[in-house]
Amino acid sequence: MVHAQHEDGRIIGIEGSVVDVRLFGGMPRIGDVLEAGDEAPAIIEVAAILGPERVRGLVLNPHRPLAAGMAVRNRDRPLEFPVGAGTFGRMLNMFGEPIDDGGALDDVTWRAIRQPPVPLSKRRTGEEVFLTGIKAIDLLAPVERGGKAGLFGARVSVRRC
What we know:
Blueprint: E1 9-15, E2 18-23, E3 32-36, E4 42-49, E5 54-59, E6 71-78, E7 80-83, E8 109-112, E9 129-130, H1 135-140, E10 143-144
């Protein structure tokens, strides 16, 4: 006998990558993860609380098909990403999943992507440059050690005709 996935709510509106969800039970917090669909679910990050049973979220993987009335599951946790020595030299997608054919991640801790800022009194300032080993970044857009930087890229596949 096949059991249906647990259902916490339903999609009631879709506009592009923004969805409105009516929930049946407990309300998520802003930043929490909702999932819609069974195989390779759409990941929705709660962006706003619209009312006692309604939230609005942003679909983080919009290539997944969604429809009004689709079941939604509340994961009761924020979006998380792996940190630690096991991530060094690895390529990860925005959900922290390896995309470099290097196998599973070892020696990592999963942490919420939204963290309180480090107090000014605890921040180290200096002019030391963090060398990434990527010549284009180190030359054209150097990163200050202790600072923050984000790198975005796409996986490109080439087809030969």
